[in-house]
Amino acid sequence: MHATIPKAGCKEFDVAGKVYVRRGASGPWKKSWIELAGRTLSVFSDDEEDECDLRKVVAFSVVNAAFYESKSAAVCPDALETSNPFIINLPGRVLYVQADLEKATTHWMKLMQQRARECGPAIEDQPMTSEDVPVIVQKCIEFVSAHGVKSEGIYRHCGVGSRIAAVLDLFAKDAHGTYLSKENFSEHDVAGALKRFFRNLPEPVITLELYQPLLHCAEIENVQQKLLKYQSLLKQLPLRPNFVTLKKLLGHLRVITELATENKMSIPNIASSFGSTVMSGSMDSSTVNSYAGDNFSGSTKEITVLVDFLTFYEVLFEVKDEEIQKERKILQALESFNKQILSPPRAGDFLMGIYWIDRKGEAINMRLKTSLTAGQLCRALLDREKMEPDPAYTLHEVIFDDKLCSFSLRTFKVCQLFTLFRPVLRESFFGSLRSACPGR
User: Fold this and answer.
1) Interval 41-54 mean pLDDT
2) Which of 103, 190, 235, 397 matches a 20 to 30 Å C-alpha distance to 274?
3) What are phi and psi of 331, to 5 degrees?
């Protein structure tokens, strides 16, 4: 098997073996060779090659064969033993994996899950989004954007220490599966967790080798020369994840400063709050001054650098106008959505029709509490059908005769679903053979 695939075995790997892989819910099963090196999974078939970053895996789940019309439709027919494959859910794609032996299938899934969860303290060791931004950074920014951009003193006021620690603990245990709710955390708790994450990095997101050059650059009086030098230095950052993460963070902070009349966080105020966080992290003052050099006071110049980064954000990070407009529209949508969520809750329970698998036939009318989550609803429906709890099932929102389908987070409250969408319970993150959304 290995010898028929030229590229397999060309790189160093920790463990490798023969399995069967299906790309997507309706793709064909292909005999494949897989190699696991750290948290990188390489998949080699005769005519295809995939490289999967396990830091970006949203979830692992086992196929529930009972859902399919026949056992042969759920499992690989060429495997020596009939066992349930497992699913690797990645942003935008899904892989089904099955080994010849059931024991080997289970071993591969456990090994990949273990590798995916091995998060070190460094920024490059974090669970990542598809854009190579740490998941904790993305989700904290989204939370503050939805609940705190207009809050006075955001990123200056301290949250509650125990709740900040709780946020960090949630992401350490399961970053992709973490959902932050306003009921459990305030905007200041989450903002504090984001700052602490950056402060606790063993090396700041702006690497130490750039520390002194950036302080020197802040002293340049000619604005054009200063910007050119800043751009040159920023290009020395590792593109992924450091540069893209810094760009994401500063874009968010820039939005905060544009609302300074309400939140009182002008560019100098945000820079004072975040300067040392992104430039020197957890270093003590003596270490900071040693990096800064004899002619600089590190902490004050850090603020100057961040003021420049925020003031000239579009130029330094080559932000296109359509990116700015997109971010503003997202912010407006989040604010509008947030107002709906914070509106007075419905009194008592309410009725909602849920379709099983697809929208054929009659909906199952269920009386739901306003606090019920999508995951809890899934469990209730499976109980109703006398089926075992199965994480492969989840709630989808369907509109326009199944032409538009959206996956709902298991922790998302059902009462917050858009009223235009019709809830449908289906298997797996990307649909299934019986799904009305083939190819997802």
Assistant:
1) 92
2) 235
3) -60, -45
| Residue in the block written with tokens 């295809």 | 48
Quote the mean pLDDT of the chain.
82
Q: Which residues contact 171 (CB under 8 A, 6 or more apart)?
A: 127, 135, 136, 139, 178, 197
C-alpha to C-alpha distance for 321 and 155, rounded to whole angstroms: 26
C-alpha span between 375 and 417 (Å, rounded): 13
Q: Is 425 helix (H, G, I), strand (E, B) or coil?
A: strand
Report pLDDT digits (tens) over 175-234: 998 989 888 999 999 999 999 999 999 999 999 999 999 999 999 999 999 999 999 999
Query: 331: Cβ–Cβ under 8 A, 6 or more apart, which residues?
Result: 145, 149, 255
| β-strand partners of 368 | 350
Task: Please confirm whether the linkage preceding 241 is cis (ω < 30° from 0).
Answer: yes
- The two tokens of residue 90 are 């990645």
Cβ pair 381, 427 in contact under 8 A? no
Dihedral sign, Cα of residue 11, residue 59, residue 330, residue 245: negative
First-last CA distance in the chain = 30
Burial class (CB within 10 angstroms; exposed 0-12, middle 13-18, buried 19+) of 53: middle
3-state secondary structure of 105: helix
Nearest CA to 23 out of 78, 81, 113, 88 is that of: 88
Q: What percentage of the chain's residues is helix, strand, coil (to nearest 5)? A: 45, 15, 40
- Across the beta sheet with 15-23, the strand order is 49-53, 40-44, 29-37, 15-23, 93-98, 86-90, 59-62
